[in-house]
Amino acid sequence: HEFYSSTDKMASLAEKEKELLDFFSYYIQMEEAHLQNLRSVLLYLKFLYYSEQNDPVMSNPVASYKLIRRLRKEWFTISEYTQQSLYQDYQDMLSEDVHHIPDQEDVDGAALGIIRLQDMYKLYPKDITKDPQTGREILLKPDESFHLGKVAYDQDQFQHAFLWFLYTLSNINADQEATVTKLSVLQYLASSAFHFGDLTIAIYFTQTLVHLDPTNMDARLDLAIYKGRHFTQTSNPDVLRLNSTSGSIYEFERSKVTGNRKVMVSSLRVSQSAWLDDYDPVVSRVTQRLAYITGLNMESSETLQVLNYGIGGQFEPHYDTGELTENSEGHRIATVLIYLSDVGGGGATVFPEIGVSLKPVKGSAVLWYNLLQNGELSELSLHASCPVLQGSKWGEFYLAFNLRDVAMLLAFSLRLAVKWVHERGQEFRRPCSLSKTE
């Protein structure tokens, strides 16, 4: 019906709102009268009850008769009366009028009309909210102005969106009632500024967001991107090194492999491993830096795994996609191996399908993708760890991202161990391909 596109229809909407208000007021009055009648009946019943308390009900047949009749007549009548309500009449009236009430398309259309006016006449929110006839400002609630900003944002009108988000932020600071949060507004302000090319403003609002919510990993990652600390190329990558830090020494246990949803010790893999949580500040910083480097969401990642391959330590050819379990966050779709020590001989990581052999070099790492961009297994990612002849092979850092891409190798340095990140949460950071071959 597009109410927003016709002034005549808008006039009818004003009349309809008055009609709904009048009927709602009438409905409340009738319900209040209904409740008052019920209170009067309650007083009458209490009078009957207390006035006949002295009657010998059990021994006197007349008193028994009166009690039975009272329960049947009075209380049955009350039961019927209490079931009567104007609520159903009110619901029926609303059902008839539902086709004459704007839907979400009308709301979005009206908002888009405001954005067009804003764009055509270069208006600020304060200009639009001022009534030209009375000069009085028509106040918008935070949820209303935020919706205007979202409509502009979805139409790629980022400068107009920014102004509406800024208007919303000022209203939230004024403690106006709202369902939208200050954190959401800050995130949209930063994103809008980034899209129209003002990185200084984007960084400012993102820093404000991180200050208010230090655990917001998305905001921290956005801040890194805005500051230019995000890796966008895979050729000739920069070398990153983490300073050595002291920390706890963890006991290692025999590595296990999974299959058919079982975890077991297997001759396929001869090594020991430990798992390090992000509760440790050092591990947390490593996870954060991985987010900066990869551009991925680390909230769906597993805890950090450190491996130690001893004498004859190996891992026979396998894929890293992992088993899907109940409440799974998806397959592991990329792997990063980080070497923590040199070895005297052996210990190479090999890719038989592409004829590549990687010798462990302390402080180096390699990244490949286990799945194609369409989500299918990349057979080129088949790999194995060769037996260690001499020395100790520390730490293939398995960082399983849910990246959907052909198997490709990327060497960059990072010191630590093993991490898997699952595909849930990466949908917009690493979108899948519609091609059957990618």
TrEMBL record:
Taxonomic source organism: Electrophorus voltai
Gene3D superfamilies hit by this protein: 6.10.140.1460, q2cbj1_9rhob like domain, Tetratricopeptide repeat domain
Transferase among keywords: no
Keyword Kinase: no
Stated family: Belongs to the P4HA family.
Phylogenetic classification of the source organism: Eukaryota, Metazoa, Chordata, Craniata, Vertebrata
CC annotations in GO: endoplasmic reticulum lumen
Official protein name in the record: procollagen-proline 4-dioxygenase
EC number in record: 1.14.11.2
GO MF annotation: an example: procollagen-proline 4-dioxygenase activity
Physiological role: Catalyzes the post-translational formation of 4-hydroxyproline in -Xaa-Pro-Gly- sequences in collagens and other proteins.
Ranges where the Fe2OG dioxygenase domain occurs: 300-423
